[in-house]
# Entry
Amino acid sequence: MFAVTILGNNSAIPTLERHPTAQVVTVDNQLLLIDCGEGSQMQMQRYHIKRGKLNHIFISHLHGDHYFGLIGLINSLSLLGRSEDLTVYGPPELQEIIDIQLKVADTRLLFKLIFVPLVPGNGGIIMKDKEVEVSYFPVQHRIPCYGFRVKRERTKRKLIPEQAKAYEIPAAFYSRLQAGEDYQRKDGVLVKNDWVTLPPPPAQAYVYCADTKYDPGIIPYLAGANLVYHESTYLHDLEQRAADRFHSTAFQAASLAKDAGVGRLLLGHFSSKYTELGGFLEEARPVFEESYLATEGTTFLV
Amino acid sequence: MFAVTILGNNSAIPTLERHPTAQVVTVDNQLLLIDCGEGSQMQMQRYHIKRGKLNHIFISHLHGDHYFGLIGLINSLSLLGRSEDLTVYGPPELQEIIDIQLKVADTRLLFKLIFVPLVPGNGGIIMKDKEVEVSYFPVQHRIPCYGFRVKRERTKRKLIPEQAKAYEIPAAFYSRLQAGEDYQRKDGVLVKNDWVTLPPPPAQAYVYCADTKYDPGIIPYLAGANLVYHESTYLHDLEQRAADRFHSTAFQAASLAKDAGVGRLLLGHFSSKYTELGGFLEEARPVFEESYLATEGTTFLV
# Structure
């Protein structure tokens, strides 16, 4: 499974109904967390996210609504007895903020906390394992801020079950077929792998565009993504306010999604001034039909 | 009005039903906040606490469940347009933790944030105005930690309305009678103040005993208080665990309340291991009848 679960979609001031930004990306058996506003650890409980499976946390920038919940989450993971490493990626100053808060509490974490600084002006791959590759890219905000592209590689070839049966290959061998092996039959026939499988499906990508003003310069990072989250703090009648505050409108987010040719678009980071969110879809869909609201508790398949 | 509203009563790990420690003390028209765990600003919204009236925040110690919500609250107060000064009292390192988080976000608060360090080993009055006096005292915990005593002075004399009417004093003069003035009648009679008023009622006190192990040494700070909050992280069958972790049991809290001769006792800071809290009352009441659970959202009159 490759999916995104929304824990918070509000900007700046948390409200009772809308929490600050946080998203869990599930890639098969591991969980990544992107941003961690205040209360994210409670939201993970609310939506039955297994905190123990979390092993990578990505913080886009150091405005509080994107990271004030991080220290509490780290603290709780230790109290819950975690022993596996946890890696946090974020602007360099975040390390000091974490360290000082652990130090004054005389807290020694039960697990190893690895910190990977995101370097201003750079970008590129910051995490990679067999299944997942995460890269970051700069976006335009008031302070250094980054977007993330999560790519799920699919290395298993796709089995054609009727073909495998026709060649009388035992089901116990199917996983080796998916890994690309040929099958040697007892009667001497060598069943070539590509007679019974298809190439792996293409890689999939989720792109998270954190707080940013409208910037067509990021289109290359969005291109070809199956699912893109782009902030839309305001509706387009407040285009100037959005620009002044380095934020975007729903219309702008939809335009980028269209121009980048992505699959689907998630809108979020709504200003607290909007108590009703229907207007964001009304504005985005005429530009880009596959637009959705990043509603809290909802899981979107990539 | 002099009252305490509980925003959170859980220890260490927040759960969906129980939030980390935070309490709002209402003294007539001003609000004091004691401790500010993660999510306190949302809890203030949930229970309709007017955040704008908050002008003093007291942090007992720097374990996260007592202050991780502070930076988010400060940030939101500024975003909401606050202009009045806000004073924060806490261990000295708290100032650096606040400052660094404002700095990396390039945040300039719209109001003046005054920080008053609580000095280890000291104690005494830290805040005083016409109505309220707050003093702090050291308690025994793993790291420097303090309790707070909030005293409400009552300076207005108590009017005896029937007497004031009998002497034909106009109602417009009543507030001056409460302030202690005599009344000069047109017919030459001087109505002495103590003919129509009684002395002000005695001062009232609320005492907050933050995370602490059982320590009869704090009894002098509790003595004569109308209402005392004392942590009771565990039930008494875990007395040894409580001592090891510098926490208290419900039995110990009740014993202190009895020995100090206080009015009523609030129990809180319950370990997450207890899903049901009835046992705390069952343990405390036989020792000290006037024991109550610090239930979230409940307001207790001092």
Summary: The longest strand of chain B covers residues 132-139.
